[in-house]
Fold these 2 entries.
Entry 1:
Amino acid sequence: MCLGIPGRITEIWDDRGTRMALVDFGGATRTSCLAYLPGAAVGDYTIIHAGFALAVVDEEAAHRTLATFRELGLLDEMRRQLAAPREREARR
Amino acid sequence: MRYLTEFHDPELARRLLDDIAATATRRWTLMEVCGGQTHSIIRHGLDQLLAEQVEFIHGPGCPVCVTPLEMIDRALAIAARPEVILCSFGDMLRVPGSASDLFTVRAHGGDVRVVYSPLDAVGLAEANPDRQVVFFAVGFETTAPAAAMAAVTARRRRLANFSMLVSHVLVPPAMRAVLGAPDNRVAAFLAAGHVCTVMGTAQYEPLVAAHQVPIVVTGFEPLDLLDGVRQAIGQLETGRAELVNAYPRAVRAEGNPAALAMLREVFTVCDRAWRGIGVIPSSGWRLAPDWADLDAQTRFDVAGLTVAESAHCHSGAVLQGRLRPPDCPAFGTRCTPRHPLGATMVSAEGACAAYYQYRRLTPAL
């Protein structure tokens, strides 16, 4: 019940004073309540728990995290590449 | 799928694993307190990939597993009443009570329904004015906002036939209990990301300060979990203990303000018994006094419950990280998801169910 996965809001409407949304999870759609995300808009990716949207996924933060992962090990690789010619020279 | 496939990338996983291997000088004991994360770790074999660097102890992060037996027996007794429609998340139906479970009650004529959202239960109350609709509100801080809104909606629609059996639990007090145990071995925590989506991160500051334990707010995909491990081990190796948010795409420091306001309105903090663990002070939510008219516990008198835990089930030790599921003598033999002895074998988030689903055919390491 805690595994909230991100889905895309495709439609928003009002049900007797409560904001509701249709959320698309890669083809499967669910009706969800937007009461806790007053700023959410169509096109936003959101995390749903027990039929309630709890957060809009921060796209910039996602990119920053992935960029950090891509940089991991790059420094070591660069060091290795820089060290390689020097080692060859030392052997000579 | 967006925000899923990127966080499953094998090349980036390799980079994270290499980084962890290069940093760790010893094997560290980490605990996650979220059944979703437990399943992700076992399903993707992260514990096997990290076998030399990490011992994972799975914390009490499965909400239906820790729901106290007395509360389940109470739900079973209420569900058996002819005027009642008892609504619950699907996970709860097979969880064994002292003598029965909700599936069995339903087989004997009880009206037990699975709902996806607590609002569905409110809808059922509206559609069945001559019946009493009871929502069994279990779960951590992630599901409580949904239950709170169900209470508010029922009151707004003046539904006198809706009530809730509330057994919500809170994660930080459980982490405090783990750290306070005399035989605690946990060196750092991966904090459950979506709990923090609701609650924010500040509630962990006192734990970090008092116990000098790194706490890394972590997501659920394989790369998220590897990053949580990487940041925890980075701290441990340099002797730091800090609160870090490794899941910023879904967690803001302040949490979800609208949900927090609603939780404060509808619920009040109480002591709560955790199945297999015992009472943890200030570790639960019950309905606030203003909402007592919606409390199924007082609306339905079910006196004379005899509560008795199975003698063959070791789920208490599993929930406290003292026993690995495959080491339990009943695992996979007397106890299976179809015939569970305890809740940890039932739920989609239970640790025993995770090992049964993904590991029972693999020889132990």
Note: Chain A touches chain B through 41 residues (CB under 8 Å).
Entry 2:
Amino acid sequence: MSEYPVNDDNQAEDLAPMLLPLDAWHRKKGGRMVEFAGYMMPVQYEGIMAEHLWTRESAGLFDVSHMGQIYISGENVEAALEAALPIDLSTLKTGSVRYSLLLDEEGGILDDLMVTCWSTGFYLVVNGATKWDDIGTLRELLPDDVTLNHLDENALLALQGPKAFAALERHVEGETPLSALTFMKGASFKLGGVDAWISRSGYTGEDGFEIAIPGEAAAQVADLLCSEPEVKPIGLGARDSLRLEAGLPLYGHDMNPDIDPVSANLVFGINKRRRSEGGFPGAEHILGVLAQGASKLRIGLTLEGRMAAREGAVVMLGDQQVGVVTSGGFSPSLQHPIAMAYVDAAHAADGTALEIEMRGKRLPAKVVPMPFVPHRYHR
Amino acid sequence: MTRYFTEDHEWIEVEGDLGTVGITDYAQGQLGDITFVDLPEVGASVAKGDSVSVVDSVKAASDIYTPASGTITEVNQVLADEPELVNTEAEVGGWLYRMTLSDAAELGSLMDEAAYKTYVESL
């Protein structure tokens, strides 16, 4: 038996892995620790399938402290950040969260990120494996009078699932009730007495929250939340299968610097005003692709049978290669395999019948709209 | 009947020149929830160490290397509908395939149960 590494992080540097604030906590909870994005992280506790289904029906607690938390402030920070990202900050109210993209000069995707408007500046959450590069890129793009702080003493937890609200509400106090938060809104709370920035957001397609807290309080907060009957800790394995079902792309797999946002079906990450005005890195190329249409597109595929298509598998139409799988696996909720792939735009329409080559076999697959499992955000 | 084990966590139970092959309980625990087993073709001629089968779990696909050379005579059809049997009964009902052995001497390089147990404890 030998395992193919699938969706591990190929960008992690060749250094001894670092430990996150909850390292001991995960081990105590029976987490199977693996190296991911340069950190030791739990890939699973009781098993990916059970954890996945628990999150869909109850609530799962994810440690995503490997992600980069960045605070940007200073004179004219709005204009400076708009020059760096294709976001329209004039429509982002205080306490609101928005998805955005860090792009290179050719319009390739360097990272995807969340931008939150705080009263004093902007709070960014970026991917763990790319955070050091992102910080370097942002420091180059931002003028000297704008300050970038890496909030590396913070932990980040995600509580996701239909019962996340009920479990979290029992422990928070704030100027506004937790129920005031709708999808992509955040506010400050005391969570079990700990200062927390909580937003109603996540990476599973479920209702849920992302919770930024001081690292030294992470174990206390994790214990508090897991003491609720609805909540179990969930590892990286289920995080990946949940986000795949939700149709959410994973950086380094479904996006990379060779892919532009139009091909990635992430045009919504370039806000409307910026699509007409430009003025962000890679704008010239991206606006050209927008006008002409992308030559290939990120699409969803459902497969017949039970054999999963994995990253790198070739997508065929007859004898012609028309694409490649970038993420794939068995969907625990749907009980059949699903995949994300880039295919030629001519063959990207919903309902198109294609085949995926896996280990010398042809697996019948059909282009379907994403998400594979409907989102249940609290809007 | 004698059972042998490989360092890649396959087992083979041998009776005369017939062998039954599966993955160990340790292996299934490492793989997690098994969702599909790609079994070899009956009649296929295989050489020791060939990748003859693939076990898919939610997170990954894993090659199964045949512990002995010979010809595949039967595959475990139950796994088509119940691949999770490899999780629940890895060393019993979750067997993968049966084969005739072409070179019984090959078995000498495999571990017995006690040696495998020691090997797993060392991992």
Note: DSSP finds four helices and nine strands in chain B.
